[in-house]
Protein 1
Amino acid sequence: MSHIVTVQDAVTAFEDFMEPTSAELEAIEREMPVILADVELLDAQIITIDRTPSELDARRIRRARRRLLAAHRDHVNGLSGQTGGAA
């Protein structure tokens, strides 16, 4: 019979590295407007998956797409002013 043995030491050896660093958390925070705008666009698109989009749905998708593009533009423009950051 083969026994299953946990490899706790191998799994927890990198425990310190499993959490995001403060720099990674700051990068996520800077990108949060883009993430939220992308979620808004996905929500608008999901609503219309199983039906023909109405005029209101089409406007909602266009508006969400414009917000996503504006958030992405602002994010990229904000990154261009930084030096040494990961883009």
Note: The chain has a mean pLDDT of 85.
Protein 2
Amino acid sequence: MKEAIDEIKTEFKAKLLFWNNIQSKKIKVALIFLFIALVGLKVFTTVLTFDWLASLFS
């Protein structure tokens, strides 16, 4: 369990270091919008899938 927590901490530190090394604010904004778009797409497709499944069984 301790190894898993250490691995998560290491990964988080690596991601934070990557984020801090990005100098351009435009790239940071683009990455944030990309992340939001991917989450929105996932939610949207999940809702449509469940809606389709519900109508299939009705």
Note: The helical segments are 2-21, 25-57.
Protein 3
Amino acid sequence: MAEREPIGVIGTGYVGLVTAAGFAELGSDVYCIDIDAGKIERLKQGEIPIYEPGLTEMIARNRERMHFSTDIPDALDNARLLFVAVGTPPTYSGDADLSAVHAVVGAMPASDRHALVMKSTVPCGTGKNIKRLFEEQGKSGFRYVSCPEFLKEGSAIDDFLQPDRVVVGDDGDWAGDAVVELYRPLLTAEHGGEGPGELVRTDIASAEMVKLAANAFLATKISFINEIANVCEETGADVLEVAKGMGLDSRIGPKFLQPGIGFGGSCFPKDVTALKQLAGNSGYHFQLLNSVIEVNELQKRRVIGKLEKHLGPLVGKRIALLGLAFKPNTDDMREASSLVLSARLQAAGALVSAFDPIAEDEARKLIQGVRFAEDALDALTDADALVLVTEWDEFRSLDWTQVARLMAGTTVIDGRNALDPDAVRGAGLTYEGIGRG
């Protein structure tokens, strides 16, 4: 393998670790920096703080190329490209909290041989402001590149190594060229690579907007199909058949037309809110995104109505939640539907048991008052109703005859339309999905 340029990665959270491991896999030495000394020490010992399929193995495979430290100079001394992957959570106003980004900017020295490469999701205009800060701090030689990430939790390794696009926003200087060169093996033959990734080389503001706009559009598709599902329930139509018919139209496509009990995670809720807020701060009222957010919040609560239809008042009723993470193959609990659902159920007087095969440790930090079960069957034992919240594969393959024997009631709410209705009903249970008449 030809020698590749070393890089620095500031922030060892989800995006930072996947990015670092991916470039190490491609042959770069990677200097990973984080202010959390405890996390850095654990990473040195091979302990990976997040769950992502394949990530632990990839980091173990590239341990000699991955260097962990709390000192930014360790990255500056060895690499000219510093990928920024720090958190930008929403503030109470809905704006992105850029304090961690500004801390990185403030920690940079005056240099004409280094560049910040922004992986963190930031509002459009952040690059312009950072370049202004560099000027004010006497660091005008420091370059800046926007290179948004498009990793999906649960498939992030494949997304890094097999990207559908690589977006690079820059001022047309050496820094942008260097970032493109790093990604070269993953780009299409047209761009000198052997991968599937199309290169979008553009200005900084447009690159920043690509990420926000993409996530907002996908969130819009989810809220739209959830609205269609709700209408299907009133009219007797089956939303799965409707979504299939819609998705076969090449202008629409089938992805993100899976109805359920709302989207969550670290990206969609935050980015939709951030884009709405960005528009508002600029004097534009983004009406569509207001509806996307409202539909998503209401969708999480519709399960309560479904349960009450079958059980009546929920006071004293035992409800089992299967799955807590916002999606399968991750332990991420950020904006998970289970947070709202568990709180609403308890507010209605229900007794809640829950099980998730991966996310329990994270869930315990955020959810109070529920009984965390040892496994799925333990969660649903003596339950009056079962709600599928996260469509882990192990829940799809449950023995429904055994489930029926263990439950006190018969109600199964399939919050992701992931179960086999015939198998559930064949065991004598009452099945209700989302948007299925």
Note: The chain has a mean pLDDT of 95.
Protein 4
Amino acid sequence: MKPVIERILAILIVCIPGLFAVYGWKWMRNLLHDFFAGKPFAWLPFLGSLLLFLTGIAVIGSFIYYRDKKRHRIQKERREPSS
């Protein structure tokens, strides 16, 4: 039963930041569309959506990197810090 709960938690860890990233991307796209349609550019919402997008992508990327590192799928040069 425990591995099932761990897998559900792992899916949530990936999906929730993924939803933030998708929402940030959608918001940026809509703001750019409004700008090209003739409305003034809204900098603050654009920067907020960019932050959402980059944070979501960073969390997903770090999760995948950690998982691959744990399963020894990362090249040896990248696993160990250089001296």
Note: The two ends are 43 Å apart (CA to CA).
